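Please produce the structure of this protein holding zinc ion.
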Amino acid sequence: MAITIQPTCCIFEYLFIRKSVCRMYMLWCKNSNFRCLLSALCLIACATSACQTPESKETRVFSQSIAHSDSFKLAKTMTEKISKTPEEWKAILPPDVYRITREKGTEFPFVNKYWNNKKPGIYKCACCGQALFSSDTKFDSGTGWPSFYAPIRPDCITIEKDYSYGMVREEVLCSRCDAHLGHVFDDAPQTPTGLRYCMNSASLVFEPKSND
Ligand SMILES: [Zn+2]
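Below is the modeled complex.
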C-alpha cells in the first residue's frame, strides 16, 4: 500500500508547488507592489543573515575581554579608595546597610546576622568587598555583636575618634570606602590583643571558607 500512495503524494505536491510558483510569478509580473514587497523581504533576509553570525562571535569575544579586564581591574584596585556620593551608595545598598555603613547607624544585638556565626571564613566589607576580618580572630564577647580581636590586615581599616552620644569612642571604618563598621574597645583581656572590634553584621558580608 505504501508504495502506491507515495508517488501519488509526490505528484500532488509537485502540482501544488508548480501551481504556487506560477501564481507568484503572475503576481510578480502584474503587481509592482508585490514585486517591491518580495524584494524588500529578500533584502532583509540577506542583511539579517549577513549581520547575525559575525556579530554574535564578536559579542562573545568582547564580553570575554570585558570579563577579564574587569576581574584584573578589581584585583588591581582592591586597595585603592572608592568614593561615591550618598545618592550613589543609596542606589546600590539595601536600606539597612546604607543606614549603618553610610549614616553611622547601629543594629540591635543578638538579632543580627553574624553575632553567633561560628563558621570558618572571611568577613568582607558590605559596600566594597574588601576583606576585613577572619573567623580565626572572632570570639564570643557576650555582647550580641560579631567581635574580633584583630583585623585581617592592619591597613584594611582606619580608626577615627567618635564623640557622639556624649562619649569618646574609637570608630572603625573600612579603609577603602570609609564605610562605618563599628567601634573598637580595649576591654577584652582574654584575647591576644586585648581589643574588641565590635562590628555591625550589616556592614559585613561573610564568605565561608571553601573546601578546595
Ligand atoms: Zn569598604
